[in-house]
Amino acid sequence: MIELRDVHTYYADSYILQGISLEVKEGSVAALLGRNGMGKTTTIRTIIGFTPPREGIIRFKEKEIQCLKPHKIARMGIGLVPQGRQIFPSLSVYENLTMAARDMERGDAWNINKIYNLFPILKTRTRIKGTLLSGGEQQMLTIGRALMTNPALLLMDEPSEGLAPIIVEEIGHIIGRLKESGISILLVEQNISMALDLADYVYIISKGVIEYESKPDDLIKNEEIVSNYLGVAGNE
Amino acid sequence: MITVKRLYRPAIFASYGPYMIGLAIFLIVPPFLPMYVQSIITKVAVFAIFAMSLDLIMGYTGLLSLGHAAFFGVGGYMAAILIKNFEITNFWIVAPISIVVAALFAAVLGLIALRVTGIYFLLVTFALSMLLASIALKWNYVNGIYGMAGIMRPDLGLAGFRLNHIKFYYFVFLILILCYFLMYRVVNSPFGHALRGIRESESRMRALGYNTWLYKYITFIIAGLFAGVGGVLFTYQSGVIAPQHLGVTVSTLAMLICIIGGIGTLWGPFVGALVIILLEYFSSINAPERWPLILGGVFVIAVMFLKGGIAFHLKKLWNKMFLNGSFKG
């Protein structure tokens, strides 16, 4: 689905991603884990084209996309669930969703009713402005908005950040259901237990380099890696 | 079981009352005003159209322009050139050509200005409008520094029908309502929602697959077009168009009208225009040399005590007065 080959990204003179290679296979969830400031969000920004790489290749659906503008990349079928939710505060829930609508002609395409089925709470809030939603509702709206673009690949930047545990659990279920529906997901997370539950494959990034990669089960067994790179003792 | 019959609540009045009251006042009162006040109210309507067009790019799209008077002035100059130099008097020929030319200028200048964003956009629009003003200043074809004067009220091409003061007011007011309606349709369409999205976060909109540059460019042209409408009407209303009408003074005035009235509402600029133009009129009678001081003072008061603009507070007051108050504005 998407493949990064030796990607180097800079913010002006700061050398952030120092040769990242990773892959998300079709219909799978890959988790990108790591501490703060290690380059997780930069990886997402590099893929969507906000900070294009200076070197390296990003291949999506067999096409190289590292030179494309963000809106072109998005239109190829990449949806973004940005960090910190970031809904449009002055627009209603309904408007937030409909403005993202794209590629609706496919039979199994996402539309507003499907989003409301996935997140029934949003249906009761449909005319309410984005700012008046709770954190969990905003997160659901952000996911719904990304789904309305009918992406083949979803980039999720810390969807559990700042949410109550019970909401995190619900978001986890939703991501599980999206995976079952066939969407590929690159999940950037600090909530390791949630990421390991959902992921088919795990990457650990540290100082702009992928330091470790394996299946989630192998990572759980490898306590040294977990404590060195994720800063938690054992399987938390 | 006791059933309570639901009391009639005038929901339409709660939602649209301010429009009804406003319309009633501006349709009924003007004939009873002295003639010079009628022309002041006409000027209010002209500047309301111009400020609303600025609100499209400033309030809805989040682009701060200090050169919006360029399109106001181009519309006005084009009308004056057609009337004075080509001796075309029919309004239905003069106005469309002038408005289209203003939109064409917006299309060309937009290509230059929208290459940059933020404060640089402000500076580039400022520079471009000053460039046009300085061309007008030196160009004998348009009378240079003196501007083009002696323009009569429009000839609507109807035999035996001439616009007098009050009829001209109604004519301009009708165009104001039409422009408001058209701009309202723009900002409440999916296109308008996308503009608000761009204002709130351009990068998010790009991540949703929007070519945000194109949206900004189209809006810039639409705003230029409506500024042109304002410019044409201004030329007819004041009878004169001069280089300063292309420059920063008029751009700033429109910006202040928007900020004082309330940006991002469309009817806010109308309220702002009413306040500012009336104040200008009273100050021109009592203390003409103090006008910049008064304008500055009003601006400071509006920013400090009326955050969000007069429109925002009027809306709040209205919605408080009615339990089911849900003014659509």
Oligomer: heterodimer
Reported by name, the CATH topology of chain A is: Rossmann fold
Mean pLDDT of chain A: 89
The dominant shape of chain B is globular
User: What fraction, in percent, of the residue positions of chain B are helical?
Assistant: over 70%
Strand content of chain A is 25-35%
CATH architecture of chain A: 3-Layer(aba) Sandwich
CATH classification class of chain A = Alpha Beta
Number of continuous helical runs of chain B: 13
Q: Major sheet of chain B: order of its strands?
A: 1-2
Cα shape of chain A: globular
Write out the strand line-up for the largest beta sheet of chain A, numbering strands in chain order.
6-7-8-3-9-10
Question: Your description of this structure?
Answer:
The complex is a heterodimer of chains A (236) and B (329). Chain A is an alpha/beta fold. Chain A contains 10 helices and 10 strands. Chain A has helices at 40-48, 70-75, 93-98, 112-118, 120-123, 135-148, 165-180, 192-198, 216-221, 223-230; strands at residues 2-11, 14-24, 29-33, 55-60, 63-64, 78-81, 153-157, 184-189, 201-206, 209-214. In chain A, the strands form 2 sheets. In chain A, strands 6-7-8-3-9-10 form a 6-stranded mixed sheet, with helices on both faces. In chain A, strands 2-1-4-5 form a 4-stranded antiparallel sheet, covered by helices on one side. In chain A, a hairpin with a 2-residue loop joins strand 4 (55-60) and strand 5. The mean pLDDT of chain A is 89. Chain B is an all-alpha fold and 329 residues long. Chain B has a domain at 35-246. Chain B is built from 13 helices and 2 strands, in the order H-H-H-H-H-E-H-H-H-H-E-H-H-H-H. Chain B has helices at residues 11-28, 35-60, 69-85, 91-113, 118-138, 165-187, 190-200, 202-207, 212-238, 248-261, 267-286, 291-305, 309-321; strands at residues 148-149, 240-241. Chain B has a two-stranded antiparallel sheet with strand order 1-2. The longest helix of chain B is centred in the last third of the chain and has 27 residues, at 212-238. Chain B is globular and about 50 Å long. The two termini of chain B are 41 Å apart. Residues 4-8 of chain B have low confidence and may be disordered. The chains are: A alpha/beta (236), B mainly alpha (329). The interface between A and B is medium-sized, with 23 and 19 residues.
